[in-house]
Design brief:
By secondary structure, the chain is mainly α. It has one domain. 82% of the residues lie in helices and 0% in strands. The chain is globular.
């Protein structure tokens, strides 16, 4: 069985990792500022779904499969790296352009979030390490399912909260006043992660 203290510890680690200014958070924040809260929430839902899936994969031992079949890990990582670089180039190129008049469709925003986290299989290595430290071994399947659902819930709450917070008029005005530099910072972070995924062995 899972003790409440285990879930609390897991959630604290999860919140700390989400609060760091990584590519997933920057993507969700920028989408909210550019396209509005609905698109931001949809992007966060895509990011959160795959993050929770990586946790599930860690619980089911996907790291062992990656160790046995390293080509699978390299393939996922390489495709994800090129997708991140493609996003980064587009952000950098469009940094000086005005905001698009048509809002991003929620389905597309969700798909972008899915692809960004799907292309970062290092998440399963992080999840495996954290899970091994916090939770007891030989958890039953129901307990593993609870951990995954808990992870998804935390991700959805955090990204929805950020989206609602940044959907205010002052936040949008602040973003517009510094759009070029903020977009290029976001592009640089995504591009750096893409290059790191390509070069990291």
């Amino acid at each position: 069985m899972i003790e409440p203290a285990h879930l609390i510890a897991f959630n604290l680690v999860l919140l700390a990792s989400m609060a760091s200014p990584g590519p997933a958070l920057l993507l969700a924040l920028r989408t909210t500022l550019v396209q509005g809260p609905r698109a931001g929430i949809a992007t966060g839902a895509g990011l959160g779904l795959i993050a929770a899936c990586w946790t599930g994969a860690g619980l089911l031992g996907l790291k062992i499969a990656f160790d046995l079949f390293p080509w699978a890990y390299v393939t996922i990582k390489t495709v994800g790296a090129f997708y991140l670089l493609w996003l980064a180039i587009g952000m950098w190129r469009d940094a000086r352009n005005p905001l698009p008049e048509a809002p991003l469709k929620q389905g597309r925003a969700f798909r972008t979030g899915v692809l960004v986290n799907l292309g970062n299989p290092k998440s399963v290595l992080f999840a495996s390490a954290v899970l091994a430290v916090i939770f007891p071994p030989d958890l039953p399947l129901a307990a593993k399912g609870l951990i995954v659902l808990n992870h998804l819930g935390v991700e959805l709450i955090v990204y929805t909260g950020f989206a609602l917070l940044l959907s205010t008029a002052p936040a949008r005005r602040a973003y517009l006043s510094a759009k070029t530099i903020l977009d290029r910072i976001a592009a640089a972070v995504l591009g750096a992660l893409g290059i790191r995924l390509l070069l990291d062995h």
